[in-house]
């Protein structure tokens, strides 16, 4: 993100000030419409319309990530500076889908801002809005075409018995042909023995915490820079691809296994036998929503944490557990968690004492 170019926000005139929006997505790289070209289009159109660029909002998101942090920044700026202008180089740089593209523009307008599209104009002009809707539909069509081409390419590669996309599981490396194109995974001589060691420990020492202790003691290479954890062990033991089989779009791809199929199935049975049930879905948390946080006054609701074996429930202040949701009103530092039987018991005792008092 590039900071404001104005010396002081207090002297910013929203009527002639514009925020430029730049968006680069990994599934839209084929069009060569990168940040520099988007910036040039916005700068040229802003100058043509007598607008002064005071800020740039730049985002780079993956094709699999639909979270839009930039939306919140646009909305926050529109709330702070009523009448502020926002300019994008093209509707497909606002979003991929019609409902997202139109939704962002509408929200900015409802907050008092004005959206511009380079080469199209001010969207508060009804005529421009009509062309904007048409271009938004074309943007989604272009996106769907890109996705379809990528899918067809990956499917065709899988049909030829080659690894279609992405990295193989840790413990494998992609074998490549004479042209440098990936073919299929083969065990990595350094890390594959570690994967097999984790599988063997699952059958001998017992639970994943015990396996983790052995792996740490032996100093085995870790799958990530963060090092080993119970989650690392869990991810290896549950990954069926270590048996030498992967399915892409219904197409089966076979390669050399690291964990034999028979051993993998035995491990799943052992893990299922050790798994503790988390209890019925009707948790009996009678106080959820009926009690209030002493610090912020927000509702005390149900919180949960998930382990490989069970989901644990507890009472907590919702603002302290969801700071992003509560950001507008401020969060809460009350991080106290109450086990349902404990808090329910305390409240029932207090209720009984209250109801049985003669006064």
Helix/strand layout:
Layout: E1 17-25, H1 35-48, E2 52-61, H2 69-80, E3 85-88, H3 98-110, E4 114-117, E5 121-122, H4 126-159, E6 172-176, E7 182-187, H5 192-204, H6 208-218, H7 230-238, E8 245-248, E9 251-254, H8 261-274, E10 291-292, E11 299-306, E12 311-317, H9 318-321, H10 340-355
Parallel strand pairs: 1-2, 1-3, 3-4
Antiparallel strand pairs: 4-5, 6-7, 8-9, 10-11, 11-12
Helix pairs in contact: 5-6
Pfam families: Recombinase, Resolvase, Zn_ribbon_recom
Domain Recombinase: 169-277
Protein name: Recombinase family protein
Structure, described:
The protein is of the alpha/beta class. The protein folds into three domains: 9-146, Rossmann fold; 172-274, Alpha-Beta Complex (Hect, E3 ligase catalytic domain fold); 291-355, no CATH class. 39% of the residues lie in helices and 18% in strands. It contains ten helices and twelve strands. It has helices at 35-48, 69-80, 98-110, 126-159, 192-204, 208-218, 230-238, 261-274, 318-321, 340-355, and strands at 17-25, 52-61, 85-88, 114-117, 121-122, 172-176, 182-187, 245-248, 251-254, 291-292, 299-306, 311-317. The strands form four sheets. The protein has a five-stranded mixed sheet with strand order 2-1-3-4-5, with helices on both faces. A three-stranded antiparallel sheet has the order 10-11-12. A two-stranded antiparallel sheet has the order 6-7. A hairpin with a 4-residue loop joins strand 11 (299-306) and strand 12 (311-317). Helix 5 crosses helix 6. The longest helix has 34 residues, at 126-159. Mean pLDDT is 82; it is low at 1-11 and 277-282. Pfam families: Recombinase, Resolvase, Zn_ribbon_recom. Residues 169-277 form the Recombinase domain. This is Recombinase family protein.
């Amino acid at each position: 993100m590039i900071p404001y170019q104005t010396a002081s926000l207090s002297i910013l005139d929203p009527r002639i000030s514009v925020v430029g929006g730049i968006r680069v997505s990994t599934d839209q790289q084929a069009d060569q419409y990168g940040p520099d070209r988007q910036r040039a289009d916005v700068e040229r159109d802003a100058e043509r319309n007598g607008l002064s660029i005071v800020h740039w909002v730049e985002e780079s998101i993956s094709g699999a990530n639909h979270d839009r942090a930039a939306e919140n920044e646009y909305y926050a700026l529109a709330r702070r500076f009523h009448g502020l202008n926002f300019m994008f180089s093209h509707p497909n740089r606002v979003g991929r889908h019609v409902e997202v593209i139109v939704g962002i523009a509408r929200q900015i307008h409802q907050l008092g801002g004005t959206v511009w599209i380079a080469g199209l104009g001010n969207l508060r002009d009804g005529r421009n809005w009509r062309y904007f809707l048409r271009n938004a539909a074309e943007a989604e069509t272009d996106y769907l075409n890109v996705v379809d081409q990528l899918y067809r390419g990956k499917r065709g590669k899988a049909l030829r018995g080659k690894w279609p996309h992405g990295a193989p599981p840790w413990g494998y490396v992609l074998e490549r042909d004479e042209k440098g194109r990936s073919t299929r995974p083969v065990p990595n001589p350094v890390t594959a023995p570690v994967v097999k060691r984790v599988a063997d420990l699952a059958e001998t020492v017992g639970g994943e915490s015990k396996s983790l202790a052995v792996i740490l003691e032996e100093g085995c290479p870790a799958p990530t820079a963060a090092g080993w954890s119970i989650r690392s062990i869990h991810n290896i033991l549950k990954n069926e691809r270590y048996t030498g089989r992967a399915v892409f779009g219904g197409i089966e791809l076979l390669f050399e296994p690291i964990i034999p199929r028979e051993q993998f199935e035995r491990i799943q049975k052992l893990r299922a036998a050790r798994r503790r049930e988390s209890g019925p879905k009707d948790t009996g948390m009678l106080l959820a929503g009926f009690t209030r946080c002493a610090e912020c006054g927000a509702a005390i609701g149900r919180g949960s944490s998930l382990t490989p074996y069970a989901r644990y429930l507890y009472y907590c202040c919702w603002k302290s557990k969801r700071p992003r949701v509560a950001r507008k009103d401020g969060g809460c530092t009350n991080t106290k968690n109450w086990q349902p039987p404990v808090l329910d018991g305390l409240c029932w005792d207090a209720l009984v004492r209250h109801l049985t008092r003669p006064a």
